[in-house]
User: Fold this.
Amino acid sequence: MATTNDLKNGMVLNLDNGLWAVNEFQHVKPGKGGAFVRTTLKNVMTGKVVDKTFNAGTKVEIATVDKRTMAFLYQEGTDYVFMDQDTFDQLYVPEQTLGTVKDYLLDNMEAMVAMHEGAALYVELPASVELLIAHTDPGLQGDRSTGGTKPATLETGAEIQVPLF
Assistant:
């Protein structure tokens, strides 16, 4: 147990039978009345974002989140299989847990998998990922004042917008 005075960005709290990550927090001491902490929390399972206010010093339960570097192996049905680099254990991560990360995953790519009680909460990719463009139509350079974009399909099958060139 910790108090709201100990909150930091990125902490995961166990509130209202769910896991909530602290996106933002602000300690407020008004001229009249007691201090309080204004927070923006994101549900790590659903992605829902809420604003919540706590009285200063309120006890909150901090969830234990284990972050491990794992390699993406393959997709099996709707699950994505990751392997722990140290123990060689395999972890099946459901497609809905990955979200848009799945559009940028290649075989043997390393990713950070956050886990709580043996279940994957979310997956983070490195800050930059190099992928090849599998297909793009030729862009027509037109009469425009700003740069244009055209659709491109990545080697993973995801479609993104790229500049005309």
